[in-house]
Specification:
Helix content is 45%, strand content 22%. It contains 4 helices and 4 strands, in the order βαααβββα.
Length: 106
């Protein structure tokens, strides 16, 4: 089985930094590290089996190929597109957010 590299785009990278900052300021360093571990686990899964992500938001947003995968033990979704040679992570968003509004291009 081929594992595709998972690459966060700029917006996703900022989402990750924001989430880490939140957990550092509102919880603890241990919780922030657990968040990073959950994200790395999600990336490994997506790289191995990208088709297992939910296409639900692709239909809502009219973005063919968009999939999402939840982080374990954290209320975040990884939004990504699969390509022949890689996985592009577009956003990492809290599941309670207005996903369509956050996914619109700037």
């Amino acid at each position: 089985m081929s594992i595709k590299p998972v690459r966060p785009r700029a917006a996703a990278h900022q989402d990750i930094l924001d989430a880490i900052d939140f957990y550092l300021s509102e919880a603890s360093e241990r919780v922030a590290l657990d968040f990073v571990d959950a994200l790395e686990s999600a990336y490994r899964h997506i790289g191995r089996a990208p088709a297992t992500g939910s296409p639900r938001h692709a239909h809502e947003l009219g973005l063919a190929g968009l999939r999402s995968w939840p982080l374990s033990h954290f209320p975040y979704l990884v939004f990504y597109f699969e390509h022949d040679d890689r996985i592009d992570v577009w956003r990492l968003l809290h599941a309670a957010r207005d996903i369509p509004a956050w996914m619109k291009p700037d």
